[in-house]
Amino acid sequence: MTKKVPVTISSKRLRREFVKKVKELSGQNLQLCYQCGMCTGSCPATANMDISPRRIIELARLGLEEEIAGSRTVWTCASCLACTVNCPRGFDLSKVMEAIRLLTLRKNIDHVRPEDIPPQERCDLPQTAMVSGLRKFTG
Amino acid sequence: MSAKQTKKKSATRAVKPRTKKPAATAVKEEKKIAAKLIPIYIMGKRYEVPEGLTIMKAMEYAGYILIRGCGCRGGTCGACGTVYRKPGDYKLQVALACQKTVEPDMYIAQIPFFPANRATYEFAGLTAAPEEVFKLYPELFRCVACNSCTKACPQGIEVMDAVSALKQGNIAGAAQLSFDCIQCGLCTSRCFGELAQYHMFQLARRTYGARIVPRAEHLAEMVKAVNEGRYDRFLDELKQAKEDELKKVYQEREVEPMAAGEDWKPKDTRYL
Amino acid sequence: MSLAYYPGCTLKTKARNLEEPAVASMEALGFKLDEIPRWNCCGAVYSLADDDLIHQVAPVRNLIRVKKQGKTELVTLCAFCLNSLKRANLLMRQDVEKRNTLNDFIDEGIDYSGEVKVVHLLEVLRDEVGWEALSQKVKLPLRGLKAAPYYGCTLLRPREIAIDDVENPTILGDFLKAVGASPVDFPESTRCCGSYQVVSSPGDIAEYARPILNSALSHGAEALVLTCPLCDYNLGRGQKELAKKQGGFREMPLLYFTQLLALALGLSPRVCHFDLNHGSPESLLKERNLLPQGESVQLIGGQQ
Predict the structure, then answer these.
(1) Which residue of B145, B164, B167 is in closest CB contact with C57?
(2) Both C52 and C173 in a single domain?
(3) Which domain covers residue C6, as residue numbers?
(4) Angle of the A127-137 helix axis to the A93-105 helix axis, nearest 10
(5) Do A130 and B139 touch (CB under 8 A)?
(6) C233 with A134: Cβ contact below 8 A
(7) Nearest CA in chain A to B138
């Protein structure tokens, strides 16, 4: 269940480099979002997220990198593209989520280690799961 | 490098007798009989080495004593994996130092060892299922099919295809494709996904040989026959034979011709 | 008629129950699914980063193999593969700079600029066989089977690669009608099953499955018809966990559309490998008399 997050907006906390990198990696114009919440409404994973997709976009364009880093939202995203397809402004949230994940992964900080997946699951999981999981969660 | 150090000489040159001579003349003499020298760069430093030497011999000529990255010297142990480049060419080339002869201006570096993840397992407890590989080497799924491994293989193996076979659960395919693998590790050193391909292939080949390939029936029959003593009498005869008898038997032995068909039989059929 | 076919890694092992009935059915319909030579893993997911090229290499290389064969259409059966291959194909068609860089890097001898068309088997059934023609070939109409068509995400999103309408797809429902079943439309038919989250947060999978299964059940479905092996795994695993967590949760049989196709065309259930399904359909199929007399589903212990 996503919750309200009190946020202090100040120029001291705005990480311009972060905003720039997110824009570059995602190729999206973060200013397009007008916070309508269609994305959150169509997201199947909000039950597992602490900050909603809509709020992530707002935090991203304000450059509030620490708040995003402390949240599990981008790692709970399943790239199902429901948000992208429903956004009335044609804004691709899935790419912004990927960009934020990559900013961590490309620092050689993985979200999942293959050896932490239980051995029986490595046998049972379809290959599509192993390939896509390792692509999204390891650098 | 000592003036008395012997060098590899071309087979067509007469070998001049070596006598003790003052250093200056000895050097001049060496230049007269030396093969043409070409420049190569070992770990960035320039050396002049005789043309026609292998990379390994050239490194030793240059004074390096190889205690690692050197093994069979015959192209099968995989210890001397080497990468090199030529000036002006972005392409990275690979070779085995004991097999490849030096080329002018080669920039070489040896990769005698590259850290590679090797899973611990009891082979006896594994089945022939591809899931065993998935379990032991989950990083297999990090492969992005970039083909860097294939480009890095000095044996010309289609490494990417063999990894692909593993992902598809085709153990036999991976075993067959990786047959020529000598475990040099160059593929692992270049892998984008940080896979240890050669360890995975070794598991595939072991599984293939032990659990998938059908047993050779005629071999089992032969072993049974030997153990039952069918050849004991003949072996005893040979053991008791005198030296000239043995020599005669050996010289008159019949050898199966190279082009023999399935139905070829020797003249002496006692041993069949 | 021969169709260039890309199976994907999963269909060769875990999802033989998706592929084998498909190959057999298409043969019965006069089509040969010809596997392209030397195919490699497509990468499963399309890389969403603007600067990422290395992850496009895998799907593009497969498309080059199709082009080398002289074929212009590639049929795929795995939903992930469809998504990955089709998006990569679009990239090669639309982005000149990336296309050139990729062609330079991929040393397969020829350049590729999106000449091949990537389609899903459902599209082949709709466009090249036709629902009418398919109905006429049906030997065992699946009458009385109230099956809910479940699309998942990768066949319909993003819009550029969707095989049908994104909001209101009908292709799987039309297929079910053509084979004589009664499709049960339900609102969550395009809701994601959790996808690769099963790798990092397997505990979340039950909550992905719950709204999908509840919605299908409440609309009167007695089985879910799937197109993707990961959906099969996630929904199967999710519903088992839900059944453990809350008593009375009814587990649903999970079927692939290709298994229904094979049954409807009168092929032997052996080709369907029902024992590999993560939500066993045996009792339901028996109840509806959809398993030919004397044939039974071989179950692997524990798969009930």
Answers:
(1) B145
(2) no
(3) 2-121
(4) 70
(5) no
(6) no
(7) A114
Across the interface, do C54 and B161 touch by the CB < 8 Å criterion? Answer: no
| Portion of chain B with pLDDT greater than 90, in percent | 75
Task: Say if residue C53 is in the same domain as residue C97.
Answer: yes
Cβ contacts (< 8 Å) between B142 and chain A: which residues?
114, 134-135, 138
The model's confidence at residue B6, banded by pLDDT at 50, 70 and 90, is: very low
- Model pLDDT for residues B253-265, shown as the tens digit of each residue: 899 899 888 888 8
Query: A47 pLDDT band (50/70/90 cuts)?
Result: confident
What per-residue string of b and e applies to B132-169 under the rule 16 or more CB within 10 Å gives b? bbbbbbbbbbbbbbbbbbbbbbbbebbbbbbbbbbbbb
Residue of B nearest to A131 (CA): B141
pLDDT of residue B128: 94
C144 lies in the same domain as C283: yes
The reply to whether C160 falls in a domain is yes
| Residue among C80, C153, C195 with most chain A CBs within 10 A, to mutate | C195
For CATH 1.10.1060.10, the residue range(s) in chain A are 16-107
**Whether the predicted interface score ipTM is above 0.85:** yes
Q: Cβ of B134 and A122 within 8 Å?
A: yes
Confidence of residue C35 (pLDDT cuts 50, 70, 90): very high
Q: Please give the pLDDT value at position B262.
A: 85
- Beta bridge pairs of residue C119: C75
| pLDDT single digits (tens) B93-148 | 999 999 999 999 999 999 988 999 999 999 999 999 999 999 999 999 999 999 99
Contact at CB, C199 and A81, closer than 8 angstroms: no
**Interface touch B134/A115, C-beta < 8 Å:** no
C55 interaction partners in chain B (CB closer than 8 Å): 144
* CATH at C233: 3.40.50.11810
Q: What is the model's pTM?
A: 0.85
Residue B271 burial (C-beta neighbours within 10 Å; 0-12, 13-18, 19+):
exposed
Class of domain A16-107: mainly alpha
In a domain, C195, yes or no: yes
Q: Identify whether C260 is part of a domain.
A: yes
Of residues C124, C116, C113, C115, the one with CA closest to residue C163: C124
**C36 is written with which tokens?**
């392209």
